[in-house]
Amino acid sequence: MSRKKPTVLIDLSGTVHVDDAPIEGSVEAVQMLRDNGFTIRFLSNTTKHSSSTLIRSLRAMGLSIHLSELFTSLSAARDLVASWPGAKPMLFLEDDARAEFEAALGGSGTGAATEVAVGERKTDGSASAPAAQSDQPYSCVVVGLAPSMFEYENLTRAMNVLLAGGKLVAIHRGKYFARTTGLALGPGPFVSLLEPFASTPPTLVGKPNPAFFHLALASVPCAPEDAVMFGDDVRDDVQGAAAVGVRGFLVRTGKYRPGDEKEVGGVGRCWRDLKEGVEWLVREYGGN
């Protein structure tokens, strides 16, 4: 008799794809899980794109994914800030992600302002500080992955928002992420840059925040001990999952660096890639 199948939590960037290209075997791995009756949830710290854009991109890669299965740190941060009455966030987000934030704030019923852009873009596509100060102070600074927005004047303005008592919200604190050309800076270093100016510690929204994992588990619903997590980030994915009782599996793709497997610990394991780990799951827990 086959054992009870665990719910499978899967990171996206670096585990399933890098930029707009699927990692070899990942599309087949996800389909294998579906064909064998596993429940799937995708947990992503991606902050450059809205959920709808991300879904379209993943489907274009051949990945079968439904909006109800996707949990992003961007949407969690959006809902958090929208719940604060009168919130006026200063957003370090690219246009697509910022549009999702603005839509939620404008219709939240909390009185949150929708004038949230950090800065204007110059004709060369880079960002500059807004031409005029708003007559209503920003109440918080929200930091995601926004390469075109991390500019001196914008960061200086954010510093002053924090010095005036504004909250610092870190959508996540990833140090780097994988691109097809190699590793690139994540939002974490910019959160660390601004952190000394905040009067309270940053509010961390995405992985490894336990609340983010519990949000995905509650949608099944599923107890932590009845789930596994695949990811390429030993800290945010594997250790973050283990902290709430989910068994973490590290994959040697994406941002994985040699030696990361030494930090898996506990009952976690390390696999060559997602497909190898999924093949083991199917053997271990049986198919349909």
UniProtKB/TrEMBL annotation:
Protein name: STAS domain-containing protein
Domain STAS: 1-81
Domain of life: Eukaryota
A GO MF label: phosphatase activity
Protein species of origin: Gonapodya prolifera (strain JEL478) (Monoblepharis prolifera)
Signal peptide: none
A cellular component annotation (GO) from this entry: cytoplasm
Regions annotated as coiled coil: none
InterPro entries tied to this protein: HAD-like_sf, HAD-SF_hydro_IIA, HAD_sf, STAS_dom
